[in-house]
Design a protein that fits this description.
The protein contains 2 helices and 2 strands. It is mostly loops. It folds into 2 domains: 65 residues, no CATH class; 51 residues, no CATH class.
Length: 116
């Protein structure tokens, strides 16, 4: 297994091309290590996040630009079938598994989910 980002800051990191660390010579199978010990000789680096982006599990994810107004967002929360389970046009009730749906196109009146 390859080393993970934590390895560079770990007290147990071997800093060797053939050995990851004393406990996990070949690395770990997960995105974090339960045996991680912060090396006091290495300063913790500050993770800088540009505006409109965030780090998730060490990966920088750029957030899509928000184009809706606050009122439009509230309207979506109040009326979209994902939150209500009901078609906003005709009142058709979607199956109770509506939380696992991706699109909410109404089979009754033809309303099309174009919220994305």
């Amino acid at each position: 297994m390859p080393k993970i980002a934590q390895c560079n800051h770990c007290l147990l990191y071997a800093r060797n091309t053939h050995l990851i660390c004393a406990i996990h010579p070949e690395g770990v199978n997960t995105s974090s290590c339960l045996d991680f010990r912060q090396d006091p000789r290495i300063e913790e680096e500050e993770i800088w996040e540009p505006e409109g982006a965030s780090y998730y599990n060490g990966e920088l994810i750029v957030q899509p630009k928000q184009t809706r107004t606050k009122e439009e967002k509230l309207e979506l929360l109040d009326n979209h079938p994902f939150f209500t389970g009901i078609c906003p046009e005709c009142g058709y009730t979607f199956d109770r598994d509506y939380t696992s749906r991706i699109h909410f196109d109404c089979p009754n009146c033809g309303w099309v989910d174009d919220s994305l």
